[in-house]
């Protein structure tokens, strides 16, 4: 039988090391989840575009219309407004009802 003194002891890790490792693992898991969501949306978009090629043109027109409407609401028709300077459009819509 092996002598108890000859067995190597596992290194003692401090609680700071364990906490840092947990934070790193949580960050890696969150990053992996975010990548998974992005890949899922990319696959969905590709499937939708392959199913209906006209969808791309419609999406482009809708995006352009959105930018024009946002510029009009924010009061600057020449330049695209910054996100921080324009009021939230959902608040405007709910207050006008």
Walk me through the structure.
The protein has helices at about 15-50, 55-75, 90-95. It has about 100 residues and is mainly α. The longest helix has about 35 residues, at about 15-50. The model has no long low-confidence stretch (mean pLDDT about 75).
Question: Unreliable runs, pLDDT <50, ≥5 residues?
Answer: none
> How would you describe the shape?
elongated
Indicate the radius of gyration in whole angstroms: 27 Å
Q: What is the mean pLDDT?
A: 76
Query: What is the element string, with H for helices and E for strands?
Result: HHH
Reported for the largest beta sheet, the result is: none
The count of DSSP E runs of length 2 or more, i.e. the number of strands, is 0
Count of helix runs: 3
Query: What structural class should be given to the helix and strand makeup?
Result: mainly alpha
Beta-strand percentage range: under 5%
Distance between the termini: 84 Å
The residue fraction in helices comes out at: 55-70%
Tags for this model:
97 residues; mainly alpha; elongated
The gist of it:
This protein has 97 residues and is an all-alpha fold. The protein has 3 helices and no strands. The chain is elongated, with a radius of gyration of 27 Å.
Topology diagram in text:
Elements: H1 15-51, H2 54-74, H3 89-96
């Amino acid at each position: 039988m092996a002598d108890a003194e000859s067995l190597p002891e596992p290194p003692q890790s401090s609680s700071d090391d364990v906490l840092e490792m947990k934070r790193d693992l949580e960050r890696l898991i969150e990053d992996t989840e975010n990548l998974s969501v992005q890949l899922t949306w990319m696959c969905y978009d590709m499937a939708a575009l392959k199913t209906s090629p006209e969808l791309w043109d419609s999406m482009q027109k809708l995006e352009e219309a959105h930018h024009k409407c946002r510029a009009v609401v924010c009061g600057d028709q020449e330049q695209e407004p910054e996100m921080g300077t324009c009021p939230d459009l959902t608040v405007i819509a709910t207050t006008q009802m």
